[in-house]
Design a protein that fits this description.
Elements: E1 2-6, E2 12-16, H1 19-43, H2 56-65, E3 69-73, H3 77-90, E4 94-99, H4 100-106, H5 108-124, E5 132-139, H6 142-150, E6 155-158, H7 165-179, E7 185-190, E8 194-197, E9 200-202, H8 213-220, E10 224-227, E11 232-233, E12 244-246, E13 249-251, H9 257-266, E14 272-274, H10 282-290, H11 303-310, E15 314-319, H12 321-337, H13 344-367
Parallel strand pairs: 3-4, 3-15, 4-5, 5-6, 6-7, 7-10, 8-11, 10-14, 14-15
Antiparallel strand pairs: 1-2, 8-9, 12-13
Helix pairs in contact: 3-5, 3-13, 6-7, 10-12, 12-13
Length: 376
């Protein structure tokens, strides 16, 4: 084969390239292409290969059975261990969820292996068929949800509740269309919760409008719907002015069960989610304050109201602040009583045990999901 290369001065030079050289370049190009495809396949992790499950079947059973699945946020290994230990001990399905901030803190790649490790750990503890979901909490963009799906999440939430109604629908549908290709379940939100937690912040709440839920769920195709009926993010869910003083204790306003029941009528059997449902146990708050903390007017959702909600179509209840309080209280107490300790294991072990105790309490006494595994 001859190639004619023109020189700038008008001359020409002929030379021959052997066909073997072209063969080399062709093979190099093909192998390079295969390499990049191989890299792409490594990045695309299917949650089923990690032993995780999505929320579809567990929600179906929860709605029919009148209980709720615990959705515990985690940031650290100790939180993850405590969640798994509690779920195995109570034979409960569980949702391990991370916010955008937690994902950035822990690292997306490490989280993928932590989730796989959580399943293996549950089996080591004696649960042959654990039901563990890795869920993105409050995803704020399609790109974030897609990245989580590509990295092995089995469920994602797209939170477009701050957007105009039609934009919320469009964003949720875009996420659903992508997620359902991989059998990943999607939670969307209607209504706005007040409070602050990680990147999620709103000065005031806007209750979900029951007249919108049929149109929203139908057009988006979402698998579950987070609603606003009076819960709130963070440990300071209500101001003292919003509460009633009963026997020296501030009692928050009741949840809007009338709105919940209207939504149930509109969407019979559809999975409903409550965010911002930590109860902010006063024993943990008092321990924190006793050992150098300063938490004033920390008020949560009464557990009896969460028990009532869990008997309805509310099949997923999110709890984050209570875990933080349990961990912080145990660490503060340990370091105050053992000022010479500096090995993190010395104070993180009691923190892990305190969180495990709290998780078990929520599963058994509040949500009612104990003994609800499809298979033990």
């Amino acid at each position: 084969m001859q190639i004619n290369i023109k020189k700038r001065h008008g001359g020409s030079k002929f030379f021959t390239l052997h066909s073997s050289l072209f063969t080399f370049f062709r093979i190099f190009a093909v192998e390079n292409f295969k390499y990049h495809i191989y890299k792409f396949k490594i990045v695309m992790v299917n949650y089923k290969d990690l032993g995780l499950v999505n929320t579809r079947e567990m929600f179906k059973r929860a709605v029919a059975g009148g209980y709720a699945i615990p959705a515990f946020n985690f940031n650290t290994m100790e939180q993850m261990q405590a969640i798994v230990m509690a779920a195995v001990e109570t034979k409960s399905p569980v949702i391990m969820q991370v916010s955008k901030g937690a994902r950035n803190y822990a690292n997306a790649t490490i989280l993928r292996y932590m989730a796989e490790g959580a399943v293996a750990y549950a089996k080591e503890l004696g649960c042959e068929h654990p039901e563990i979901v890795l869920h993105l909490d409050h995803g704020d963009s399609f790109e974030l949800c897609k990245d989580c799906i590509d990295m092995g999440f089995s469920s994602v939430m797209i939170d477009g509740s701050h957007l105009p109604y039609e934009e919320n629908i469009a964003l949720a549908k875009k996420v659903v269309d992508y997620a359902h290709q991989f059998d990943v379940t999607v939670e969307a939100e209607l209504g706005v919760l007040a409070g602050v937690e990680d990147e999620v912040s709103a000065a005031e709440s806007h209750y979900t409008k029951p007249e919108e839920v049929i149109d929203f769920s139908t057009r988006t195709g979402c698998d579950s719907l987070a609603i606003s009926i009076g819960t709130s993010h963070g440990a300071h869910k209500f101001t003292p002015e919003q509460c009633t003083l009963v026997n020296g204790v501030l009692v928050p306003p009741p949840l809007a069960f009338d709105i919940l029941h209207e939504i149930e009528k509109k969407l019979p059997g559809f999975p409903i989610v409550l965010h911002g449902s930590s109860s902010v146990p006063m024993d943990e708050v008092n321990t924190i304050n006793q050992f150098g903390g300063h938490l004033e007017a920390a008020i949560g959702i009464p557990e009896e109201q969460l028990r009532e909600a869990s008997k309805s179509a509310v099949c997923k209840i999110n709890i984050d602040s209570d875990s933080r309080l349990a961990m912080t209280a145990a660490i503060r107490k340990h370091l105050a009583e053992h000022p010479g300790d500096f090995d993190p294991r010395q104070y993180l072990k009691p923190a892990r045990e305190n969180m495990k105790k709290m998780y078990i309490h929520k599963i058994v006494n509040v949500l009612g999901s104990d003994g609800k595994l499809g298979q033990c």
